[in-house]
Amino acid sequence: MSRSAHPAGPRHADVYPEGHYTAPPADLNVLDEKVWARAVRRNSDGVVTVGGIEVSRLAEEFGTPAYFLDESDFRARCRAWADAFGPDADVFYAGKAFLSRAVVRWLMEEGLNLDVCSGGELTTALDVGMPPERIAFHGNNKSTDEIERAVRLGVGRIVLDSFQEIVRVAHIAQSMGKRQRVQIRVTVGVEAHTHEFIATAHEDQKFGIGLAGGEAAEAVRRALKLDGIELVGIHSHIGSQIFDMAGFEVSARRVVQLLADVRDEHGVELPEIDLGGGLGIAYTSEDDPAEPHEIAKALNEIVTRECEAHGVATPRISVEPGRAIVGPTAFTLYEVGTIKPLEGLRTYVSVDGGMSDNIRTALYDAEYSVALVSRTSDAEPMLSRVVGKHCESGDIVVKDAFLPADLAPGDLIAVPATGAYCRSMASNYNHSLRPPVVAVNDGEARVIVRRETEEDLLRLDVG
Ligand code: LLP
């Protein structure tokens, strides 16, 4: 998210206006592997490739804008999370980051579970045969229909988010003659260091049931009395795009404290805790995210230590990474259109997409990097703002970045780390067509979500 301080070094403040940039990189042609999917390289002709396929060929075959996703990177990240947590824990991929049938198949093949938060995500998962018991159902306002479907199908757990929902799920399950496994989502009171809109564990927001005032303990009391539900654990998700491990540790400590309180009051040892998702990724060279094994080690240690201190059995831990799995695996490819140098300010580079395929910059002031990928250039760096083709000035994809000064219409540029919350939050604003997602693996590219067509738009418009 946005940084307030610039690292030391030349700022070019006398040359360029205020912004979120440091000096231009020494060589604009070098791709920082921190922000690009693992199969991305620049070949000897200067063209960027993914899985050995040149972006120029990809643009010809699939058009622009388009998201290209490195399938082997996605699978490797799934395995890294599964290996880091080991057989005594569960990893649930957060489908809200990006979900499609192919993604569900990859998850099943790599042994991950899935967190869904809507009937639509549930349908996608079941459509390709994900076993319901491997699915967790989330949301702060699940509809009666969603709850009925989830219970009827036998999802592994429903994460309860309010007092009303405790009763609602219990009632629905009981009326079907079922006992639904549930967790209660608590708000641990941590101020996660991230953008306000994606922090979720402070008191004044819509998610979860507060811990500090005793509401969570009361929720447990009520849940334990109801026949339709089996309370198996406590859930905490503190926010998203977080780099500081301290928040996760406080969250783990407070959740274990609640387990101890529940044991003391009810003589019941809840067998599970879920510590949510939220681990940050590198969007620019300045970001330094933790690795899955580091987060696993830190969480395991703290949970084990706290459980020993309280004399409660160590619960089975689960986590729900979304962004950290899919985010780094994809980039968005755009064609450069109009280029507008504004004297003394910066150059506005318009691309053929914009806030309809990446709303994150407008919504969260998110930072991205960008590179010229269809060729190399030795031209001077040019302070640029990559903007879309939509009808508002906030339609910014990359706020501050350097591109070569000889950039021309028709060049291809790519924005890395767009695998999470870009296609999944894409819109039809201005009746634009949502771009395809193309998976690249073993030197082959295949569409996993096709580009929308104008017929798709008209099909919905039944007036
Ligand atoms: N678990 C729960 C209960 C969540 O609400 C979320 C994300 C996750 C897991 C996954 O979090 P992740 O590992 O992906 O950070 N649209 C925003 C992010 C919203 C996150 C919502 N919940 C963005 O583009 O930054």
Outline type: globular
The fold-level CATH name of the largest domain is TIM Barrel
Instruction: Provide the list of bound ligands, each named once.
Output: ligand LLP
Which homologous superfamily in CATH is the superfamily of the largest domain? Alanine racemase
Spans where pLDDT lies below 50 across 5 or more residues:
1-13
**Count of distinct strands:** 21
CATH architecture of the largest domain: Alpha-Beta Barrel
Helix content class = 25-40%
Name the beta content range: 15-25%
Q: What characterizes the major β-sheet?
A: 9 strands, mixed
Q: Which class best fits the helix and strand makeup?
A: alpha/beta
Distance between the termini: 41 Å
Computed CA radius of gyration, to the nearest angstrom: 23 Å
Average pLDDT: 94
Number of helices: 12
| CATH class placement of the largest domain | Alpha Beta
Number of domains: 2
Oligomer: single chain
